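Subject: Sanity check before I submit

Could someone independently write out the structure tokens for this chain? I want to compare against mine line by line before I put it in a report. The sequence has 181 residues.
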Amino acid sequence: MGHMSEERTKERVASTAWWPKWEQELGEYINTFERCQKANRKHGKKYGLLQHIEEPKHPWETINMDWVTGLVPGGKENYNACLIIVDRFSKSMRCLPCHKEDTAMDTALLFWNNIISTCGVPKIIISDRDPIFTSEFWTNLYDMLGTKLAFSTAYHPQTDGLAERMIQTMDDILRRFCDYV
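---
Independent answer below. Compare away.
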């Protein structure tokens, strides 16, 4: 499903092809390939205040939620987004196809049917300040379920580095894969 580095791409090509100066030419091609350059993320350290997030003691007790949007529509339902949910205890991830235009109610049903019904009610949900997650509907849902909502700072993945990095990697894979479908 896609390639994630120059080395991995070279390994794939080496197993099936050869030509004079292939490594040099392939490296130049990869480093100038527009789609990959746009999809690549900068991984340098960012400045900001450290924030302690308590480590969960059980699976699906604390989760991160974020969106991957702007995907090429695909599948029977023409999905153009994914709701990514990462369990901070087990580091497992669920990628739930959806539509960018989904309402708070649509998202709640998706969350209920795919997370709460199979994994239970999380104690803490970490997300960005997306309008869906801050809507009155979701605020009431959190209150009814007894779930605490913790907001990450926009464009500052250090709030929960591992989960955010997993989400970014899935975003990269989906963007590269969906562009070929």
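---
OP: Matches mine. For the report I'm noting this point. The chain has seven helices and five strands.
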